[in-house]
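Before a colleague's protein record goes any further, I have to sign it off. What it holds is a sequence and that sequence's fold in token form. My question to you is simply how this chain folds and whether the tokens agree. Thanks in advance; the entry in question is below:
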Amino acid sequence: MYILGLSSMEHDPAAALLNERGIVAAIEEGKLARSRRAEGIPRLAIQYCLNRAGIDWRAIDRIAIASRPAIAWRRQTLFRARLAPLSPLSSGYFLNKAFGEFGRELNNFRIVRSLAGAPEGRVAGYDHHLCHAGSAYFASGFERALIVTLDERGDGRAGFAGIAHGNDIREFVTVRFPHSLAWAYTQFTKLLGFRPHADEHKTQWLSLAGEPVFTDFFLSILRRHPQGPPHLNGQYFRHEFAGQLSFAEKFYARLEIPRGSETTLGNPLKADIASSVQKACATVVCDWLETLRKRTAERYLCLAGGLFLNPLLVSAIEKHTGFDRIFVQPAAGNEGTALGAAWLAWHKRPGRPRFERMANAYLGPGYPNEAIKQTLDNCKAAYRWCDSEDRKIEEAVRLLQAGKIVAWYQGATEFGPRALGNRSLLASPWAPYVKENLNDYVKHRESFRPFALSMPAEDCARYFECSANGRFMTTMATANEDGRKLLDVLPPGFLLPGNLVRLHVVGADDNPLLWKLLKRSGENAPAPMLINTSFNLFGEPLVVSPRDAVRSYYCSGTDALIAGSFLLTKH
């Protein structure tokens, strides 16, 4: 039996294929289309899933889509209707826009049914936040848990809290739009001069450089009472907030900055605003989650939704709430709902067994040496052949010890936004000028953004405290005394304020090849540890195909590429 899960098709669409043995494949459309702003039906992602299983549309028993357009349209129009007396012109614009979105979503459903040749009953829509919830709970391996999801406005609402037991998920709290922390975080990102819906990660990392001097003010904006869910204070937002949302004049007056000053704010003020909104969001979420924990007496927590792509927030939740275990879906954004929809469709029939926990995120395309060689030959690239796994690791260690930046292209592509060792750029943290070389000649990014460090799981406890979420880089680690001594000799930026570290914990079973490389690299280094950042060109998604890898390698300052068993170096 095959179930095809599709995320909502408004932005960041993805596809996931499930059968009775588990997840067959999952990939985002943007990675295959080489664009960070994909939308619509994920045709390339669907085709990859079908090809991976060796089937066609006729073999699909059910198609589950993480969207219910009619319900989303009703929620949004009811919300806007309440504001219509205050802003009739913008309300009319919004209602027309919402109706257009509703029509596009319905048309997408129709096209999917046509592509599949499927009757009405084989294509089903599921609530967006329920799909977020399913993506986290069914991946966690927990038998029961509290589930919380927070995003911008999935299916016309901003959040969800539910209890899961066995195969059943029951909602008991809904966070209505516009009371969205994710939307507010995006507005602060825009205020700081970054791109909304693209650069929220820059806001979170900039927060480490500032002081949270505006926290109390931002708390008064983001919640109504200390133990309650997110609730935006309408005094600080313009009444037309539903299409192009924005802060009101009262907000700018309290901050003592003029409207439209996004490009002229000084760096210290920007850092203080970022620090304040990060701390305020963490306080709102942690206090609310602790209230839910006491109310439900649940020991385990599952998190999903775009807000939880923020590892600083997840780390705060782990430290300031009393849950025994917390699991964050590594593809916590819109793309992860494809997995959730597929799992919900699987469990729609009572009595079906639960799958094992999500062991890794290597669910995308992988390419054999034959395909890699064909691409290299077609590109007239000079390469060397590594005749064994040990030889490949030896060559990588030699380059890393020489201070080189190595593109590591192995196995299947990661599902989700993070490079977890199959589509990674690796470097020795002890190499001279390594951060400058990565930032200036490869990544072309701001100096305040930290790089992740990969380390074998069994070595982590000596230097760091990190939860199981470190396997997916969805949280932060804390350096102990040995860890601080280890990182103190490195350039600034690896050891972050509060002794936080961006850490990727690598298990021998999760990624055996990367684990072996880390172990070998540590034989002639202070610790088995490497810098790990995503293999992609600036402004592009993670590389997928061998051609993507070759292009990114030659168009950047990367020193070497190890793709499958092939080694390429630059003179």
Summary: The chain has a mean pLDDT of 91.
